[in-house]
Each structure stands twice: as C-alpha cells, then as structure tokens.
Design brief:
Length: 186
C-alpha cells in the first residue's frame, strides 16, 4: 500500500434527488436546506485544519458543498473526484430501477453500480481515484460523492473491492483516512 497523505473526505450534502430517491451519477440536483446544514456541519468539523490542499468534484452539488465547507477559500476542482457514471440509470428513481431490472439488483449490496448499462463500472472508478491519490503531495480536504468516497477509502486503505459495501458514508460527516486507518467524525 503506497504511503498516501492523510485524506479528509466529505460527501456532498443532501440534494433534492437524494431526498426523492433518484439516482444522480453524473447528473445533478441542488442541495436541500438539510444539505446546506450538513455542509455547515462539515465546515465546523474542518475549521481548525490549516494549510491543507482543498479539492472538490466538479459536480454542482459538490461545488455547492465545497463553497460552504471551505468558506470562501480557494479549492481545486478535479474531474477524477466526480461520482461514478451510472449510464442509463442516471436520473431514475431507485424504486423504478429495482422494478425494471430485478436481475441487476438480485446480487444485493452495491454491485448494481458495476452493472449499470452504459456506466463506468468499478475498474474505471478505481483507476481514476488511484490516479488522483498518486498525484497528491500532502494532506487534503476533499468533497466528493458517496461511491467515489468509498472507493477513495478502499484504495487508500489497501482493501479489496469486496469491502466497498461495508464502508459507511454519511452526509454531514467527515472521514479521515490516515496511515491505512479510518475514523469518522460527526
């Protein structure tokens, strides 16, 4: 396992589509009032961290969260932090997808992200987050998405892909990965 720097990982705040149960993937919807409050909570959690690089996914929901979390400080947008592309499932309600594609959801867990028609799939996501991590030169604050955050943790901790569903992610929380270990803060 490479010696990556400390990662302070945050998922964007709740969005209108999160609240509806609609899958976003590479599409976007704005933060809800709860999502904005979650971002303010994250800003409070990172308030004493100084001198760290700051990054965010280019997606609008991550950008909106990052503007709140970083409180006017500059941050870099990096395409490699975007959410996994779920192809034809983007913009669809989870309930509709389960009804229309029971065979894809039969395996349970998060496997369906890897089976989404026209999607990026896990190997593509892993390659781009690994490239992002390889380019880091020091500790970083990162605003990203649920599946991408899981993959960043998985790679940084040297865990096998089978562990991806075991990695809890919460909106409004802070995940610290340091020396291959994970801690969560709320």
């Amino acid at each position: 396992m490479p010696g990556w720097p400390d990662l302070y990982l945050m998922r964007h705040g709740q969005t209108a589509w999160n609240a509806e149960g609609r899958m976003q993937g590479r599409l976007d919807s704005p933060l809800t009032p709860l999502g904005e409050a979650q971002a303010r909570r994250q800003a409070w959690l990172v308030r004493d961290l100084r001198g760290l690089a700051r990054y965010a996914s280019p997606a609008g929901r991550a950008q909106q969260t990052a503007h709140i979390v970083f409180d006017g400080q500059d941050f870099a947008s990096d395409e490699r932090l975007h959410e996994i592309d779920i192809g034809a499932f983007s913009g669809r309600l989870v309930s509709e997808l389960h009804a229309a594609h029971p065979e894809i959801f039969a395996r349970g867990g998060l496997d369906w992200y890897d089976l989404a028609p026209g999607g990026e799939h896990f190997p593509g996501l892993e390659a781009r987050v690994r490239a992002f991590l390889d380019d880091l030169t020091g500790p970083a604050l990162i605003v990203t998405h649920g599946i991408t955050l899981r993959m960043l943790r998985l790679v940084a901790m040297g865990l096998p892909l089978e562990r991806l569903p075991d990695m809890a992610v919460t909106q409004g929380g802070l995940h610290l990965v340091s020396r291959g270990q994970h801690r969560m803060f709320f």
